[in-house]
Specification:
Helix content: 25-40%
Number of domains: 1
Oligomer: single chain
Order of helices and strands: EHEHEHEHEHHEHHEH
CATH class: Alpha Beta
Strand content: 15-25%
Number of helices: 9
Structural class: alpha/beta
C-alpha cells in the first residue's frame, strides 16, 4: 500500500491566515501534493496566497479558483480532481489546527493504515481548546450531530464536523448518489458515510484547537445547521450509508 498523501486546503476570505498556512504546509514533508482552493474570496485571499506560495512554498503547491457552486464540499471535490495521491488530507485554511498536530495525524494514519483502511479525524473536543475557539452553540451542535450520526457510522465520533481528516482517495469513487453530493454543502457527514459504506476503521486523534486570529467563520449557524440536518435525514431515509441509490 502506497502512503503518498495529497493535501486539500480550502480557503475563503482567509487573507490573514494563508501565509501561515502556506508556511505550515510547506513544512509537512510527508505531503506529496498540496492544493489550495479559493472559494470566491472577496478579501484578496488569492492575491496574498499567490505571493505566499512564491515566497514560502515549493513545487508541491498549487492554487486554483473554485468554480460554482461555491460551497466547501464542491471545493473539496474539485481539488480532488487535481490530485494524483492515493490518500487525502483535508486541512481547513483557517489556521485553527496546527502543524504539529497535523504531522501527528499523518504519522498515526500511516501506521494504522498498514493494518486496515482508516478514516482519521482530528478531534477538537477532548484536548486543549483556546478561549472562543468553540462557541457554545457550535459545541452543542457538534455533540448533537455526533449523536444523530451514531447509527449511520455504527460508532460514536466526538467531532463529526472536524475540518481536518485523512482518508483513502478512492472514497470519492464509492458512490453514485448524486442527490447527497448536490445537497451537502460541507461534506463532513457524507464523507463519513462513504467511510462506513466501505468498512473503513474510524479513528480520532486529539488535537489542540486555536481561536481564529483573523476573520470569521464562513458558515451560517442557522443555514449550516439546517443543511447538516437535511444531509443526515437523507442518509437515514435512503440508507445511503449502506447502499447508495
Amino acid at each position: 500500500m502506497q502512503k503518498d498523501i495529497g493535501a486539500i486546503i480550502p480557503v475563503k476570505n482567509e487573507s490573514g491566515n494563508v501565509i501561515e498556512m502556506v508556511i505550515a504546509a510547506a513544512n509537512v514533508q510527508l505531503l506529496t501534493q498540496i492544493v489550495f482552493i479559493d472559494g470566491n474570496s472577496s478579501d484578496g485571499t488569492m492575491e496574498v496566497l499567490t505571493e505566499a506560495i512564491m515566497k514560502y512554498g515549493d513545487e508541491r503547491m498549487s492554487q486554483v479558483n473554485q468554480m460554482a457552486p461555491y460551497n466547501k464540499f464542491s471545493a473539496i471535490r474539485q481539488a480532488h480532481n487535481l490530485l494524483n495521491s492515493d490518500h487525502i488530507l483535508i486541512w481547513d485554511g483557517d489556521n485553527t489546527i496546527q502543524f504539529n498536530d497535523v504531522c501527528k495525524m499523518i504519522d498515526v494514519y500511516k501506521k494504522e493504515s498498514e493494518k486496515k483502511p482508516v478514516f482519521l479525524v482530528a478531534n477538537r473536543i477532548t484536548k486543549i481548546r483556546e478561549d472562543n475557539s468553540f462557541r457554545m452553540m457550535n459545541l452543542v451542535g457538534n455533540h448533537l450531530f455526533s449523536f444523530l450520526t451514531w447509527p449511520i457510522l455504527n460508532t460514536r465520533l466526538s467531532d463529526v464536523l472536524s475540518g481536518v481528516k485523512i482518508f483513502p482517495a478512492s472514497l470519492f469513487n464509492s458512490t453514485n448518489c448524486t442527490r447527497i453530493l448536490a445537497r451537502d454543502q460541507f461534506g463532513d457527514i457524507t464523507l463519513l458515510s462513504f467511510a462506513r459504506k466501505n468498512s473503513l476503521k474510524f479513528m480520532q486523534v486529539p488535537c489542540s484547537y486555536k481561536a481564529r486570529t483573523y476573520g470569521s467563520s464562513n458558515i451560517s449557524r442557522l443555514n449550516g445547521g439546517f443543511n447538516i440536518f437535511r444531509t443526515i435525514f437523507h442518509l437515514y431515509s435512503h440508507r445511503c450509508y449502506v447502499d447508495y441509490k
